[in-house]
Amino acid sequence: MKISVQAEPFDLGVEMAGFGIGREDVGAVVSFTGIVRDDTGAMEALELEHYPGMTERAIAKIVGEAIERWKLADVIVIHRHGRLGVGEQIMMVATAARHRVAAFEAAEFLMDYLKSRAPFWKKEHGPEGTAWVAAKDEDEDALKRW
Amino acid sequence: MIDVLYFAWVRERIGLPRETVETQAATVADLVEELKAREPRYEAAFADLTALRVALDQDLAEFDASLEGVREVAFFPPMTGG
């Protein structure tokens, strides 16, 4: 298991090399990578603030729930903070499970919870200044399906 | 003595990331009332509690939660990770 909250970029290839491989209890590996998207065509950067200490604690709790519920063999969560450019990686999750459905579901569960329960706050930087990204009702609603 | 931390626009509105507060407040809501009474910038930051979240010793909590034994309180807007 790996949980990392970091400013530096990560290398998806390096992280996934060997993940879930060579063991008898894994039949499926899923990975998701979040990328900084520009919806307005004018975004210069995305800044992520977080709560050091609580961030790692909150992610560990969410990961623990996913491991328990989907009997995961392994998990990776990497989440970046600081100033990120458009097109850069923000975060990734990877899950290794016995079956495909469990690996996909657990990855979605992790994403839904990281969005609304891990203490990160996004701020968009553009030509007219900065603006905090508001949490969406649908992100909160997404938790209800779990 | 309790450490009070602010994040995102709450931090910007209040103008500092953390402070140590001398308080006898029994609950988070009581602490919020004490802070609001201090200065307009606190009043502005805490005007709408439905727009805020609170964590006690780094775990999410409710505004009616007790502060007994709590060392660190953090106020912030709903999270936008992922």
TrEMBL record, chain A:
Q: Which InterPro entries match?
A: MoaE_sf, Mopterin_biosynth_MoaE
Q: Which domain of life is it from?
A: Bacteria
Q: Which reaction does it catalyse?
A: 2 [molybdopterin-synthase sulfur-carrier protein]-C-terminal-Gly-aminoethanethioate + cyclic pyranopterin phosphate + H2O = molybdopterin + 2 [molybdopterin-synthase sulfur-carrier protein]-C-terminal Gly-Gly + 2 H(+)
Q: Which Gene3D superfamilies match?
A: Molybdopterin biosynthesis MoaE subunit (3.90.1170.40)
Q: What is its EC number?
A: 2.8.1.12
Q: What does this protein do?
A: Converts molybdopterin precursor Z into molybdopterin. This requires the incorporation of two sulfur atoms into precursor Z to generate a dithiolene group. The sulfur is provided by MoaD.
Q: What is this protein called?
A: Molybdopterin synthase catalytic subunit
Origin organism is Thioclava marina
UniProtKB/TrEMBL annotation, chain B:
Family matches, as SUPFAM superfamilies: MoaD/ThiS
| Superkingdom of the organism of origin | Bacteria
Is-annotated flag, keyword Nucleotide-binding?
yes
Q: Which keywords does this chain's UniProt record carry?
A: Nucleotide-binding
Tell me which Gene3D superfamilies the record gives.
3.10.20.30
Please state the span of the N-terminal signal peptide per the UniProt entry.
none
Fetch the InterPro entries from UniProt: Beta-grasp_dom_sf, MOCS2A, Mopterin_synth/thiamin_S_b, ThiS/MoaD-like
Keyword Nucleotide-binding included in the entry's annotation: yes
Matches recorded under NCBIfam families: moaD (TIGR01682)
Which PANTHER family does the entry mention? MOLYBDOPTERIN SYNTHASE SULFUR CARRIER SUBUNIT
Q: What is this protein called in UniProt?
A: Molybdopterin synthase sulfur carrier subunit
